[in-house]
Design brief:
The chain has one helix and seven strands. By secondary structure, the protein is an alpha/beta fold.
Length: 131
């Protein structure tokens, strides 16, 4: 019984010491192996008036194996479509309401122009490259 009390006291001392340890923040936990990086593509506020700048960066570069997440940061609906079959993983976002998003994992290297079917002046280019 005496050994049990000693063991409990020793463990408690170690735990208290660990809690009072280094005050620096912990490092972020790395993504699990095999989990794809996500590249965010934003439909910018006021996109209808931005034409080829409606998606920010031009062209939109994604790396093979990354997830491409389209996010609608605008106040109106949009439907972004690929103009060629060069990137079969991405055909259309479907109608994205304000705040909506859609994700695609891009595994095919290539380039395709894109546009919004609701607002055809919104154009861009998606390029999938090897890292």
């Amino acid at each position: 019984m005496r050994n049990l009390h000693f063991t409990i006291a020793a463990v408690a001392t170690l735990l208290i010491g660990a809690c009072e340890g280094d005050p620096r923040p912990l490092s972020p936990i790395p993504a699990p192996p095999g989990e794809a990086t996500t590249a965010n593509v934003y439909i910018l506020p006021g996109a209808m008036d931005l034409g080829p700048l409606a998606f920010g960066d031009h062209p939109l570069v994604i790396y093979k194996g990354e997830r491409m997440r389209w996010r609608n940061a605008d106040s109106t609906e949009h439907n972004i479509v690929a103009d060629t079959p060069a990137l079969p993983e991405f055909v259309t976002t479907g109608t994205l309401a304000p705040g909506g998003e859609r994700t695609f994992t891009m595994n095919t290297l290539g380039t395709t122009p894109v546009h919004c079917t609701i607002h055809p002046q919104m154009t861009g280019t998606v390029i999938v490259r090897e890292r």
